[in-house]
Amino acid sequence: xxxxxxxxxxxxxxxxxxxxxxxxxxxxxxxxxxxxxxxxxxxxxxxxxxxxxxxxxxxxxxxxxxxxxxxxxxxxxxxxxxxxxxxxxxxxxxxxxxxxxxxxxxxxxxxxxxxxxxxxxxxxxxxxxxxxxxxxxxxxxxxxxxxxxxxxxxxxxxxxxxxxxxxxxxxxxxxxxxxxxxxxxxxxxxxxxxxxxxxxxxxxxxxxxxxxxxxxxxxxxxxxxxxxxxxxxxxxxxxxxxxxxxxxxxxxxxxxxxxxxxxxxxxxxxxxxxxxxxxxxxxxxxxxxxxxxxxxxxxxxxxxxxxxxxxxxxxxxxxxxxxxxxxxxxxxxxxxxxxxxxxxxxxxxxxxxxxxxxxxxxxxxxxxxxxxxxxxxxxxxxxxxxxxxxxxxxxxxxxxxxxxxxxxxxxxxxxxxxxx
Amino acid sequence: xxxxxxxxxxxxxxxxxxxxxxxxxxxxxxxxxxxxxxxxxxxxxxxxxxxxxxxxxxxxxxxxxxxxxxxxxxxxxxxxxxxxxxxxxxxxxxxxxxxxxxxxxxxxxxxxxxxxxxxxxxxxxxxxxxxxxxxxxxxxxxxxxxxxxxxxxxxxxxxxxxxxxxxxxxxxxxxxxxxxxxxxxxxxxxxxxxxxxxxxxxxxxxxxxxxxxxxxxxxxxxxxxxxxxxxxxxxxxxxxxxxxxxxxxxxxxxxxxxxxxxxxxxxxxxxxxxxxxxxxxxxxxxxxxxxxxxxxxxxxxxxxxxxxxxxxxxxxxxxxxxxxxxxxxxxxxxxxxxxxxxxxxxxxxxxxxxxxxxxxxxxxxxxxxxxxxxxxxxxxxxxxxxxxxxxxxxxxxxxxxxxxxxxxxxxxxxxxxxxxxxxxxxxxxxxxxxxxxxxxxxxxxxxxxxxxxxxxx
Lengths: 420, 457
What we know:
The structure holds 2 protein chains of 2 kinds. By secondary structure, chain A is of the alpha/beta class. Chain A has helices at 3-7, 20-25, 32-43, 51-58, 65-69, 76-88, 96-105, 109-124, 127-134, 142-150, 159-162, 183-187, 190-202, 218-222, 226-241, 253-259, 269-277, 281-287, 289-295, 309-312, 319-327, 349-352, 354-371, 381-394, 403-412; strands spanning 166-167, 175-180, 205-208, 247-250, 278-280, 302-305, 332-333, 375-378, 399-402.
């Protein structure tokens, strides 16, 4: 651990009101300030790295709301993640579901895609309905039952297998984009990623989606496998270096945050150059807001936006998604209260810590309900999964869409007939 | 701690809210004060006043000390258990019991966050002015115990000016009710002001009734850039002498400006010696005149640029940025030792001079910001706890600053409290008879010495 990063916390407590777990518990051990203090006391030998201490740290969502709030530049979430990654390396520390997802499946797109086939079958044959109806899930381990509950309808095939490597620009080509296709986006939210590609193409970009790209590596980090993350970074940097592109774009907040950090992992100049070109889709679309405004058709909807932590806190992107939504004619935008508070999804947190995750989700659902919006927009697959489930249970009339899905709907909306 | 006492305490608040594991105790050993740490024997989070009373009476019977804590943002070590007793954290007692629009009062539990009360009363067109820098974190109980000030102190005064009634658990667990909703009350000794700023040494608040006033109709927020620090200080005195009382008249020096701008990106100037953040509020016609007067005075005092916030959003950004000043200073060096020596406001320019000379003499970096209009500055020494020599020099510089403040007719702390950190300076300020009277008061309230022992005197 970097001692300076720990000592910089001057314990002012500015982070406390922003921390979802402190808000729920009021416990210092569940606060960013307390977590930094715990880590510091371990590094200084005052405390042992006890199981209880790791348990306290594991309550952190790594949403990094504390980092946004910290005037002295301490990132408690990242410090906890680094410390826990070191702690998990080479040992258990994960429950079997986390281990399966983080170490065995997600880092390997092929395995992951194969593993989803039975699930698709499970949904298509109606077995899912039957299982849910009969309450058979109660007989399975809790994490599994929880995962089942989170699973939305799956696309017929992962986007990675379906999409062509090159999508040509519509109209004169203004440049080219390397598209980084997130694993969960490809497997579950392929409609959104398809919309991303179509929007870029409509704005005159040629979109290249290298087929051999691998997972961004964020799950490796969560699973305590720093070497795996570095390997993923090296592979992706090398693959994208083979294409002349203006930007490397992703529509997954989690991937974007990780890709922008490749340059930090000591992977050299190529990695730094790669990271410098990475953009969230909203950043690129916002560059062309004026043109987009001319293309978008009216959608008379009341819409609100949930800031994914990986977009707002990790990448500092708040203005662009709102700006883009407001471009849609007749759309009524309603700001969500505490829009940048975590929804409780946080990687595999909602499977590993369902109770805390549900409490955090409930606050978010309450703010969505009081916003009165008919459509909730966000732009990260973890949030989409979590909020989709929460809305289905409590606010079935609120639709949830990825930012690019709504923008594409507006792009495709039939032109309203003008009175002559 | 005696395991039978711990079991009793667990029974009072529930095991979930009675912490005694090593890890939890370790992180309740600090508050926001640098250099001070002391682990308690247990931490309790009671749900209501009766639980607090039971805790205190059990601890008193066992001779174990009780230190009350809100969000742990204290800046004088006041919420640290100095002798390893029990810490009582009030955060769960966070209900706003009542907002009484007929009597213009609000009654709250001690764990209510200050800005949460602001939001609730302002939604009804009312106003609770005290707004300490930490108002989004700090609790009402802590504000009352420390008599917190804030950015609006110049025009509206401090917490003590708004406390009307208190419910306090005494050292033996008894409940003491003082004051209430009446505007006039001369029955017996006036105990409210005594309890306000008692820093948890005389009792623990379980209920607080504060005065509300109508919310000002409008405000104008201004920022003046000064190439010379002394001109900024003179402008402060000139504004007050001109009989304009802004709600806020805040000062930030060059070091502070840079750190705040680095974090908040609100467009503060990096090439000037000082800025004044000024806010006037009230009737639109009146504040327009006041703003014009302030503008003229600043220009007369050679301000290089004068800016008026164009809307509430911009005003809020400036005020929010100012609130990050103390923490933002830690961007430069890890350990920030902050003081709040306060002088009569006519002495602001002289005090700034003293601070600069002390920094130079002891070769330390001091960033200064604060409530210039109140004469309450926050010289903050930027240092590194791993460098004992520098820490020593920092404290030497502060000795000079405190002595100068006392000599000017000022005080060693305007709003952060004495706690542990400024205990040794208190006798210099209040003298022998002051200490004797204070000891007598402590003895009358807490003969056993179990409430926040080792603090203040």
